[in-house]
Amino acid sequence: MTKGDKMRASFKQMCFSDNLVNMVVAPDALSAKIAERTGFKAIFQAGYATAASKLAQPDRGIADFGLMSDSAREIINAVNIPVFIDADTGYGDEQNIERLVHVYENMGAAGLFIEDQTWPKRCGHMNGKSIVSEDVMVNKLKAAVNAREHDDFLIMSRTDAYAVSGLNEAIKRTQHYHEAGADLVFIEAPKTKKDMQVVADSFPDVPVMANMIENGKTPLMTNKEIHEMGFSIAIHPNVLIYTQTFAAERLLKDMVNLGTTKNQMDKMVTFPEFNDFIGLDDINDIEQKYATTPINL
């Protein structure tokens, strides 16, 4: 069984268990490794954080399939826990979706979601969204399901219809998306806890995801509250990119103003600690094992 097979089987078991799947979005491989080391059992790779981390750009359809898949590969290679993928709108028609499913399966992803926004899409908590017809999205999902080669590779539907056409339309679409083969479902950006409860109640037998964005459109809740509502998956997409920006800006301001980092040392890991974290000793061991001449470490 390959690493990908193990991760897919593990993620599927999580999603269809009675426990909440708690995921944080990793902007890059280092963040993913930190998430794994601190106890997360699965992580997410998503467009908002990738566009910010790789391009310093907003989530407005700027991060294309090439960039997203390269970032996903780096993250998957860095960890041994399942990685779920934000595949945006599928980056084209059904042929494009067939290709991306094969690419993500082959690199070991646990699954992906496809959304019904028009391209260029935007973050689900931004204004000005528009959506494709329900039939277009149903065909995309059918293409994704038909393309996969592993039953454990999970397909999630995402709809942004709540912002465009209201809660009832979002639920109706999601029901049809599930009927088209979506294993997991996601209605983006409900504005009230009452509406979130309606979403969860509408899919009692399907794993449903809740998206927690700080200062976003959806009320920020604890994982316990989310699970008690009936959601199976909680995602925290921006907390790492926001925290990294906050911390880096504060430190760099001190460097500009004070010319030193001495007063920030308690906010950093040390040189030896970081080298240990990223596996320097393992690399050195390999080098020593295969080196043709002795190496002084």
From TrEMBL:
* Gene3D superfamilies registered for this protein in UniProt: Phosphoenolpyruvate-binding domains (3.20.20.60)
* Keywords attached to this entry: Lyase
Q: Which SUPFAM superfamilies match?
A: Phosphoenolpyruvate/pyruvate domain (SSF51621)
Q: Which GO terms describe its molecular function?
A: oxo-acid-lyase activity
A Pfam family it matches:
PEP_mutase
Q: What InterPro entries does this protein map onto?
A: ICL/PEPM, Isocitrate_lyase_ph_CS, Pyrv/PenolPyrv_kinase-like_dom, Pyrv_kinase-like_dom_sf
Which PANTHER family does the protein's record reference?
CARBOXYVINYL-CARBOXYPHOSPHONATE PHOSPHORYLMUTASE, CHLOROPLASTIC, PHOSPHOENOLPYRUVATE CARBOXYLASE
Q: What is this protein called?
A: Isocitrate lyase
Give the source species. Answer: Weissella jogaejeotgali
